[in-house]
Request: fold
Amino acid sequence: MKICEEIQAFIWKSAAENNCNAYLIENDKRILIDPGHAHLLRHVESALQETTSGMAGIDIVLVTHGHPDHLEGATPLKKSALFAMSEKEYHLLKKLAGRYIQCPEPDFFLQEGTLLIGGETFEVLETPGHSPASLCFYWPKRRALFSGDVVFDRSIGRTDIPGGDSAQLKKSIERLAKLDIEYLLPGHGEPVIGKAAVEENFRVIENYWFRSL
Reply:
């Protein structure tokens, strides 16, 4: 699915398997966000095979948080691409489930602040709640927010898993709602496209989901 100029979405639609949406940014560098499970990487691989460079053409893989359905696919991609994630999430993952989850050694760690990749500038936002140190990526140029499992279309991330925190999640969502967003690109479900639709989505979340946090 083409989201806009320079952004492709690989939306996971199978109800029988747990995997996440992946997103490709194409400009002078090719950035893949949240590749998903390694054994379910086929939905990304098949889409990339339609391009001239395919999997081998990915320059860098970024992941929003340390859950296997978002990062395991970085292992086969690590052969030719750089890999980056939160340092806190990486060490927590290794401590709790290092023997069971595939996760390559990051080439560098991501933290709150500005991230320069090629000629593009992104903002890395620390958004804990679904996981202790999950990250969202905001691309001001396209007003695109890659929200991982923090916020979805009319829904929010779970907090009933290890490291989840409802109060932190609420604060993270309130922070994201202040951004100028044209494309809300979540880790699961459908993208929310259009500034008015994104603003309405945050209102629905505030009016309904915040009552349960």
Notes: The chain has one domain: 2-212. The mean pLDDT is 93.
